[in-house]
């Protein structure tokens, strides 16, 4: 093929390649492949022509743009925590609210059941745990259970267990949201019975100062995991203008982001439980500081910051 005909055939295409401003990553990659094919052809048949120099410069521009985009992807970890996850929290705020309300009602059910049925705590917590705690209370150390294991092994075991529980709560949402609600029921009733047990023994305030050092983050994460499951299940139940399958995919994607985002929260809660909660004689101000800091972090990151970020992004549009 003569060079003039080659240029005539590719001129319009190459001209379009010069504007990369609105080019997405997939289109960019496809265009780069085509331009390198044309460059290879030109180098073979017109090695010293201006056409080859032009295509070489165009290919270099594409290469730099692709490299820049790849470099930006290294910040994905930062953007996930700074933007993606908070915006998912805002988008799924109703699912998170419903999860919170369900959990509170189930916890109240557990506490009331424990109050009016003397056998309920043993039914929920198990005879072994109740007998051990009664023995610890008799020895003057009601929270001695947190001191029995090696701190690091306790941290690893609790972290693994809690993450498995979280994933179970999320995945069960595929069963029309009912599965996640059932998991919230189990955990909520258990918490209610557990907390009432210590109040009935006269250790209510002390249990809050000790147990909720890790419990604030742990229970908050369980509620958020329930919201992740509801986001997935509700996507199928209430597709709105989308097809049911497409809506399910969107809900599952949002729920998965929440589930992944909760892992550091569970790890932190497990660290507190393994290394901090065992120090039952720590000064009250330290317990209050941990409790307050955990509560403020969850409130800010899940409620306040997502709302602020959404308002800011919409304002800038």
TrEMBL record:
It comes from the Bacteria. InterPro entries: SpoIIM-like. It holds the Pfam family SpoIIM. This is Membrane protein SpoIIM required for sporulation.
């Amino acid at each position: 093929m003569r060079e003039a005909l080659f240029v005539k055939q590719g001129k319009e295409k190459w001209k379009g390649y010069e504007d990369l401003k609105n080019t997405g990553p997939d289109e960019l990659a496809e265009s780069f492949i085509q331009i390198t094919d044309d460059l290879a052809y030109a180098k073979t048949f017109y090695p010293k022509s201006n056409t080859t120099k032009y295509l070489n410069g165009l290919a270099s521009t594409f290469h730099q743009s692709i490299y820049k985009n790849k470099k930006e992807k290294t910040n994905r970890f930062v953007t996930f925590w700074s933007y993606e996850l908070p915006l998912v929290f805002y988008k799924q705020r109703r699912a998170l609210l419903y999860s919170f309300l369900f959990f509170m009602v189930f916890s109240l059910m557990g506490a009331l059941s424990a109050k009016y049925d003397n056998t309920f705590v043993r039914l929920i917590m198990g005879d072994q745990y109740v007998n051990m705690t009664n023995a610890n209370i008799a020895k003057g150390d009601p929270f001695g259970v947190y001191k029995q294991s090696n701190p690091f092994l306790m941290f690893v075991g609790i972290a693994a267990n809690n993450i498995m529980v979280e994933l179970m709560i999320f995945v069960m949402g595929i069963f029309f949201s009912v599965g996640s609600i059932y998991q919230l029921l189990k955990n909520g009733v258990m918490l209610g019975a557990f907390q009432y047990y210590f109040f009935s023994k006269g250790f209510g305030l002390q249990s809050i100062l000790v147990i909720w050092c890790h419990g604030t983050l742990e229970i908050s994460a369980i509620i958020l995991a329930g919201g992740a499951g509801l986001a997935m299940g509700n996507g199928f139940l209430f597709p709105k203008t989308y097809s049911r399958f497409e809506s399910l995919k969107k809900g599952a994607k949002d729920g998965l982001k929440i589930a992944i985002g909760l892992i550091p929260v569970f790890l932190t809660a497990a660290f507190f439980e393994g290394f901090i909660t065992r120090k039952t004689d720590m000064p009250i101000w330290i317990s209050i500081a941990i409790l307050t800091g955990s509560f403020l972090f969850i409130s800010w990151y899940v409620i306040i910051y997502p709302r602020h970020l959404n308002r800011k992004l919409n304002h800038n549009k």
